Amino acid sequence: MSNKTILVTGGAGYIGSHTVRQLGEAGEKIVVLDNLSTGFEAAILYGDFVKGDTGDSELVGKILADYDVDTVIHFAAHTIVPESVSNPLKYYGNNTCNSRSLLEQCNAHGVKNFIFSSTAAVYGILESGYAKEDTPKNPINAYGTSKLMTEMMLKDVSFASDLNYVALRYFNVAGSDPECRIGQSTPKSTLLIKVAAEAAVGKRDELYIFGTDYPTEDGTGIRDYIHVEDLADAHLRALDYLRNGGESTSLNVGYGHGYSVREVLDAVERVDGKPLNIVEKERRAGDPPTLVSIADEIKTKLKWEPKYDDLDVIVKTSLDWEYKLKEKPEGFA
Ligand code: UD1
Asked: What span, in angstroms and rounded, lies between the C-alpha atoms of 315 and 118?
């Protein structure tokens, strides 16, 4: 713990709010900057809140001047992959240009540490299906490219200034706070476990499997699903690492093994205790057969030890939150 403040952009969103909660529980001082375009103020359980954009240099400069900020954790971003294909400039604007102006303010105000939400989408489609940090990056959509461009900026800025960074490349995030205080409330989500939980509680009539002819054991796509609590914890480990003088780095955050779509849906039916209405469809454009992390480096560098590497636990916390949302539209207290 430190007496410095952490600026968390996007702290009202799904992953940001879980990280803010863990930081608050650890006694850290926090200021959240979020424009509430997809986040919820009620999801911010700790710290001060400022409503605004990361691209608003005047506002960011004022926050950095008013608070004694040593670390910025930058979650604020657009995250819907198909939308990034139809409207790429929206993604380059928010995810790349706004990150650039945030970094400019960080340099101007002497911020030392920067933790960035990157993504497995930087790798694109891999023949082996397994991604290590030094695997060539070939993003296939503007979302992945917009995040990779920010990683490149960070690398250059860290050479040219005192700022050090950790970029965390998230694999498939799912699950919610095990105590059900906060969870994934993002509207119009297309993510498998979120969509399956919505179907389980009756918000959707049917659920699609996109592709049953992939070259995998059961013909459906394989992904590395990671619990949001473990992902949030990776940010706290990155914070310790940077505050203790760790060098700039980009790291995969996943469990290093995957589940197929069918295995995930079996888990949802098993945990929920009733069948889903599943319809088999064509492959979805741009989906690789397999995308799984090789994630040894984060364990040695950040001393990250996952605690929720269990598909049924991931699914149960997603279902618990979805049942809560059914009663309260946003779900938050
Ligand atoms: C997600 C991320 C992406 C990241 C990737 C890491 C978002 C929007 N996307 O994409 O940035 O790079 O994880 O692996 O955050 N599926 C169905 N039916 C559905 C929904 C999905 O069968 O209704 C299948 C997909 O075809 C895929 C798997 O489930 O095989 C996971 O899909 P999804 O949850 O959408 O995540 P990714 O596309 O992997």
From this structure: 24
